[in-house]
Amino acid sequence: MTVRGRTVTTDRLDQPRALRPSLRPHYDPETFGRLSERIARFLGTARFLVYMTVFVSVWVIWNVVVPPNLKFDPYPFIFLTLMLSLQASYAAPLILLAQNRQSDRDRIQYEADREAAERNQAEIEYLTREIAGLRLALSEVATRDYLRAELSRLLEELTERR
């Protein structure tokens, strides 16, 4: 469209917008969430504890035993502390993200279970009403004992008349 000699582009509402370049990195939240769950699951295993124990032990032993020119982190192991702090600063949010995803799954499962319980309750109430109806109907139906008693009474009446 041209207005006063200039070309003006207007966004049409019936067409999708063109993607704008962004400086933010693009990531798939679902993929990132699955990755964070895998990492959080690994952080909670005995294997991780063994690996970390071996890593820290080798680090400390190396920096205590080897000659001074080969030490890369002498006592008080400032670089080791920095590495462990960095690992913890990444582990905590990943664990929280995994917990949030698990709570979302639990909420969905709870809602599905609640709906199933409501359906089951409705079915139980229906069956209870049906059984009550059958009991009422059976109370009006002659039972075998009642028929035997009536036939015996009729037989006695017939024998008395003869």
UniProtKB/TrEMBL annotation:
Keyword entries, A-Z: Membrane, Transmembrane, Transmembrane helix
Q: Which superkingdom does the taxonomy of this entry point to?
A: Bacteria
Q: Which InterPro entries match?
A: DUF1003 (IPR010406)
Transmembrane feature ranges? 48-65, 77-98
> What is the protein's name according to its record?
DUF1003 domain-containing protein
**Which species expresses this protein natively?**
Nonomuraea cypriaca
